[in-house]
């Protein structure tokens, strides 16, 4: 019993502290953790020693001076104290002075690595610009072989289009023309257009095509030429004027309107015999013989309404209107002269 009680006696406080490292249960440090703590402590001690050494720089310089003098004495080098002091000061002055390393591939790569973001952006920008320029060159926007080829193809396409249009217009003119002269004019202009296409003369081809269009429009147009018949408007007048030679001339004129099938005014080019200028008008005066003038005057004087109104008509397919007003011989009168103003 005595031995049993002896073995069950509690541990002493010193033994408990030793077994727990002075820490509560469950917080004991492992060997690895204690090693890391010791490493940190050792590093702090070395840093503190280095700081103390740097703060005691004068003492370090003095020790270095003594060692240099001893080395010089042993080697028999005749140096003075002043020279040793100057060498020590110069050494410490240059100790923390930065010197740019010499040029080398490693230095170049290091600079590239530091500037990698800027260099990458520059390379991407240059690649994008090169791709854009190449695309513009291929598309024919910028000067170069592609652009010249594009312009040549476009010019040829325009020439082909104008030639086809001129041929279609010439064919339309031949279908509607009732005048051999108009048909011949159309053929002449079509030949000019074909020759200009062979010569790659765009201006000449365009001019011939425009003339063909104008001829077609003139042949397509149709209208009637009627003598003015409103009760409040003058239908005819006797005109006296003096020409450039001083000759006084008289003439009898009836006023006419050019209207389409719906009664709308149609403007046509008329050359004024008094001014020798061509004007585009829808009403003008046509010269007639005196007997025709008197006949029309008597007609209107009866009841204020002119029964004989038709002067002529411009049919489709013809460039000139045909006079239908008849003279005393019961034949259509010939056109003599026209005026565009009579006030």
From the structure above, extract its key features.
alpha+beta, Substrate Binding Domain Of Dnak, Chain:A, Domain 2, 4 domains, two-stranded antiparallel ribbon, 9 strands, disordered N terminus, transmembrane helix
Outline the structure in words.
This protein is α+β, with helices and mostly antiparallel strands and 343 residues long. It has 4 domains: 44-90; 107-139; 146-220, Up-down Bundle (Substrate Binding Domain Of Dnak, Chain:A, Domain 2); 223-339, no CATH class. It has helices spanning 2-7, 13-20, 31-55, 57-75, 81-93, 105-114, 116-139, 145-176, 180-198, 202-220, 290-303, and strands spanning 223-227, 236-242, 248-259, 268-272, 277-281, 283-288, 310-314, 322-323, 338-339. Strands 1, 2, 3, 6, 7, 8 and 9 form a 7-stranded antiparallel β-sheet that branches. Strands 4-5 form a two-stranded antiparallel sheet. Helix 4 (57-75) crosses helix 5 (81-93). It starts with a helix and ends with a strand. Mean pLDDT is 80; it is low at 1-20. Pfam families: DUF6384. Residues 1-25, 306-343 are annotated as: Disordered.
């Amino acid at each position: 019993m005595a031995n049993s009680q002896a073995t069950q006696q509690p541990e002493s406080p010193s033994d408990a502290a030793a077994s727990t490292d002075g820490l509560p249960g469950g917080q004991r440090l492992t060997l690895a953790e204690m090693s890391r703590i010791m490493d940190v402590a050792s590093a702090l001690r070395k840093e503190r020693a280095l700081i103390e050494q740097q703060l005691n720089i004068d003492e370090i310089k003095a020790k270095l001076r003594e060692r240099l003098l001893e080395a010089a004495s042993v080697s028999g080098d005749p140096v003075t104290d002043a020279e040793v002091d100057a060498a020590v000061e110069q050494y410490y002055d240059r100790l923390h002075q930065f010197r740019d390393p010499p040029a080398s591939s490693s230095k170049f790569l290091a600079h590239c690595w530091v500037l990698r973001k800027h260099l990458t952006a520059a390379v991407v920008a240059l690649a994008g610009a090169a791709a854009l320029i190449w695309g513009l060159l291929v598309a024919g926007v910028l000067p170069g072989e592609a652009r010249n080829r594009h312009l040549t193809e476009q010019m040829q396409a325009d020439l082909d289009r104008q030639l086809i249009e001129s041929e279609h217009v010439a064919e339309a003119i031949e279908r509607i023309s009732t005048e051999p002269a108009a048909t011949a004019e159309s053929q002449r202009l079509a030949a000019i257009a074909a020759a200009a296409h062979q010569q790659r003369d765009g201006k000449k081809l365009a001019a011939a095509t425009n003339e063909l269009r104008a001829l077609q429009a003139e042949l397509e147009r149709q209208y009637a030429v009627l003598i003015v018949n409103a009760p409040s408007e003058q239908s005819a007048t006797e005109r006296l004027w003096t020409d450039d030679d001083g000759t006084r001339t008289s003439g009898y004129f009836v006023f006419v309107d050019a209207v389409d099938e719906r009664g709308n005014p149609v403007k046509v080019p008329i050359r004024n015999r008094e001014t020798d200028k061509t004007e585009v008008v829808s009403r003008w005066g046509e010269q007639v013989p005196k007997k025709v003038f008197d006949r029309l005057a008597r007609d209107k004087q009866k009841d204020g309404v002119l029964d004989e109104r038709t002067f002529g008509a411009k049919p489709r397919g013809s460039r000139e209107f045909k006079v239908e007003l008849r003279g005393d011989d019961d034949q259509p009168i010939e056109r003599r002269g026209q005026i565009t103003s009579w006030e």
